Amino acid sequence: MLDRIKEEMHLYEKKVLKALESEGGESTPEKVLKLQLLPIKSVMSAAGILASKDIIKVNKDVDELLSLSEDGASYAQDGLPERRILSALQEEETIHMKDLSQKSGIEPSEVKIAIGWLLRKGWATLDKGQVTISSQGMAARNEAGPDESLLKELGESGELSLQELSPRLQEGFNLLKQRKGLLKVHKKPSYTLEVTPLGKEILEDGVEIREEATQITHEQLKSGSWRNLHYRAYDIKAEHPDSFAGKLHPLQRTIEEIRRIFLNLGFTESRGTILESAFWNFDCLFQPQDHAAREMQDTFYIKTPRETLLPEDELVEKVKRAHEHGGKTGSKGWKYQWDREVARQSVLRTHTTCVSARFLKDNQPPLKMFSVGRVFRRETITYKHLPEFHQVEGIVADESITFRNLLGILKEFYHQLGFQVRFRPAYFPYTYLSTECEIYLPEKESWIELGGAGMFRPEVLEPLGVETPVAAFGLGIERLAMIRLGIQDIRMLYQSDIGWLRELPVTHSVDWNEI
Questions:
Q1: Residues of the chain with pLDDT under 50
Q2: Are 151 and 69 contacting, i.e. CB atoms less than 8 angstroms apart?
């Protein structure tokens, strides 16, 4: 066994062990590096490996070293403020507070602090603004206090060990540490290397130091001299460092899986801009200009640019008529005077439905489109709400599309994600019929809402020139990711906790029903 251990030892490990043998079994890294002419990093690295094999022990001791700050050095040279006031009181015995700065030479900002220490040390009394030297102050005129003694020692030596201070200097330290910024404490670790019983056995058996081959050259292979080289044995049972493979962030992984599902269902992906006009974000979707969702407390309005360009006048006029009296839809509209300037406002999009509206304007049915992107709302950050999150939006337009088809698409989507889904009636300004999607959580025996869907109203479609039925849906992604990852706080998805991320599986295919 000893032979095997010695064969696996690196050359530096052997040198450190031999140096400790020459020092009687115990020494410091600094002495070892001088004996073996090794860099300190090599000595400490070899010592760590030897300690992991229980061949030596590495004993660590931490010494706290005191030194003076810039203010402390100034006090060491010029004296503490209370000492300088005491010197002034020796001549006049009583000085009014307002004259202390001038007669002692200390800064006006230091007067109150200095008086506090004068009273605390019993060097003076204070009565009606008059500072008078006391009998203790008279006795202390030529005697330095413990704090002053420590300042003097540090001023002369530059650095002292806290553990080696005399009782008097320790008392001075206790006083000075109550003042801010006079002392600096630096922790200096020191190490002692000590041979263990196993290390002694190895040394008694004999350790041979000889050069080891680390790389074989072309010349050695060609000449055959490699056969005479010494090679260090490898411990195949040695611990190895953990390795963490690169992987997609779990939120991005969920987004990619959602994209793959809709692409496999034959949908076309579309993208939109984060900065949007109120026209496309609200007005084109038949959301009235006095709707609560358009208030400042719900929507982020942009200062630069404050306004955006509207599309062609024909579309703007059709949207205006739909809002005011329903246009050609047979609807009565919202019965108010629509304002073009309100529609120009710049906003951070509050949903991705504006992407659907733009897509319908530029593409003729039949069509199937989806979009995944970030949306923004003025939410207070909590464990379940963020002002920024992701949404997947989609539309299906065709003469034969019905509300039943919409429910079937959503049911298939959630089924591919491994969830049981149900639907309940809901209201949205731009869809009718409308529904909210809920999925079942077996562990909680409850249902949770994840998005809304419905058939676009005629007031949305008629201005865009769309004459076929259009089924639309908008689904939240963060909450879905939280359920699948088994986390309760939505902020976890954005904090990038490296420990949590490393524990997540690398592969994309995961049986999320087991989580």
A1: 508-515
A2: no
